[in-house]
Specification:
Blueprint (H helix, E strand, L loop, with lengths): L2 H13 L2 H8 L3 H15 L4 E4 L2 E4 L1 H28 L5 E6 L1 H18 L4 E6 L2 H9 L5 E5 L8 E15 L9 E3 H4 L3 E5 L4 H12 L6 E6 L2 H9 L5 E4 H9 L4 E6 L4 E9 L6 H11 L3
């Protein structure tokens, strides 16, 4: 069936006038009449009959007009749904994130986003920097929010949101708690270390190389910062962590900072996206929201 001709018939049937339909469609009356005649020929039905200066629908015309009304109402609904999806008001948003933003930043950002875009289904995946970036590259996430200077492939673009200072923390009863010590002395202590692929681990190792010092002994290796800082609070080891991850523990004196003279190290918090690809409407709206909050 010629849907263009059906749309013209639909407008004629609704307006009960070929003249009015031509004005709505901005085409000539003869063009409207020709399309209706072609549709009648295609269907083998008479759809319109003259009525004075106007027209009326035959029984076949009334039948077809009712179904056309439903069809084009669905078309309008679909256009609205597509507009909402394009503008990021519906659809899905998948975020890959490392532990710092996942636990300390994204909860507030997501709450603000969902208050504004309640119809968007949002999923967050948490892992280390390597896992998060791989998820983004495999199209399993729309954006990645990464703590640390993770090296991205040329297929990804990185935008830094802000930089968080890195702290050393120890248990409250540690001999270095609240003290200022040299980096070489602190590195002789046993450390709690994040797993391979963690940006925090890589920053500590880079600091050791920069200072021409051997890396510390690893007493425990843990897969998440929450577990690591709680192990220190329980009385074991030294931890190198981003300030945002341990600040609450420090304020409650569950762990204590050790001030160390060393080249300043900051933990960049960045958004990663796929190079050369436009963000989805959902991801673009989320990025716009968080960049306005940092």
């Amino acid at each position: 069936m010629n849907l263009h001709a059906l749309k013209i018939f639909h407008i004629v049937a609704r307006s009960q006038s070929v003249t009015r339909a031509s004005e709505i469609l901005r085409i000539s009356q003869p063009a409207v009449t020709m399309q209706i005649r072609n549709l009648e020929k295609e269907l083998g039905l008479v759809l319109l009959a003259p009525k004075g200066r106007g027209i009326w629908l035959t029984e076949a015309g009334t039948f077809l007009a009712g179904h056309a009304e439903r069809l084009f109402a669905l078309e309008q609904e679909l256009e609205t749904l597509v507009d909402d999806y394009r503008a990021g008001r519906s659809g899905t948003l998948r975020i890959a994130a490392t532990y710092l933003p996942a636990n300390f930043l994204l909860p507030g950002w997501i709450a603000a986003y969902k208050r504004k875009f309640a119809e968007v289904r949002l999923t967050q995946y948490t892992g280390n920097a390597q896992q998060s970036l791989e998820r983004l590259e495999r199209y399993e996430a729309d954006i990645a929010v990464i703590g640390g200077g993770a090296a991205a492939s040329p297929r990804l673009t990185r935008t830094v949101l802000f930089e968080d200072p890195m702290w050393f923390v120890v248990p409250p009863d540690h001999s270095y708690a609240g003290q200022e010590v040299g980096l070489a002395d602190l590195l002789k202590e046993t450390f709690i270390m994040r797993e391979e692929g963690s940006s925090t681990r890589e920053m500590l190792l880079a600091l050791c190389r920069m200072s021409s010092l051997a890396p510390p002994d690893i007493g425990v290796e843990l897969g998440g910062m929450n577990e690591a800082v709680r192990a220190v609070a329980a009385g074991y080891g030294v931890l190198f962590a981003s300030a945002s991850e341990v600040r609450e523990f420090v304020e409650r004196r569950e762990v204590v900072r050790v001030r160390v003279k060393h080249p300043e190290v900051k933990n960049p918090i960045a958004i990663y996206r796929r190079e050369g690809e436009p963000l989805t409407g959902q991801a673009a709206a989320f990025v716009e929201l968080i960049t306005g909050r940092v």
